[in-house]
Amino acid sequence: LLMKLGYQTSAAALIDAMQEAGFCGKTDPEQLIDFSIRMDMDDVCTLLHCLRNREGFTDAQMNDLRKAFQRNKSDDSERIPTSVLHKVLRWLGHCYTFDRAQQLIYEADPMGDQLDYTTFVKLVRKCRNFDRFA
Questions:
Q1: Cα of 4 vs its chain's centroid, Å
Q2: Of 18 and 85, which is predicted with more confidence?
């Protein structure tokens, strides 16, 4: 179902999202493997909300993104300047030319000179997808 809706995510990220949504505990992801969880439409909507919020990343990846964001954000706000994003992307393993990095940043936020955390995560997802399909 998720693939038909256009979601391309790893099994680990899906399990983390299902745990976040409360479909199984942190210690019983085997429930997911044997398909013992039944979901109605509200459950599917809850799962999609969790997947969208995490942009397909696992808990560990989200922690890395949070650390990178906190390390590089402006002192006086909860935003990261676009001037340092090229460095942050390289630190996260996305090594692009300056022009390609600027294009991805513009796609994530065409009007801003700083990104909030949500937009930053979307930018990193765009980078991951670009790397995956390049």
A1: 19
A2: 85
What tokens were used for 33? Answer: 């493997």
Residue 26: phi and psi, rounded to 5, are -65, -20
Full DSSP string of the chain: -TTTTT----HHHHHHHHHHTTSS-TT-THHHHTT-----HHHHHHHHHHHHHHTT--HHHHHHHHHHHHHHS-TTSSEEEGGGHHHHHHHTT----HHHHHHHHHHH-SS-SEEEHHHHHHHHHHHHHHHHH-
- 123: pLDDT confidence band, cut at 50, 70 and 90? very high
From residue 32, alpha-carbon distances to 38, 40, 42 in Å are 10, 15, 18
Place of tokens 């790893």: 10
Burial group, residue 133, by CB count within 10 angstroms (0-12, 13-18, 19+): exposed
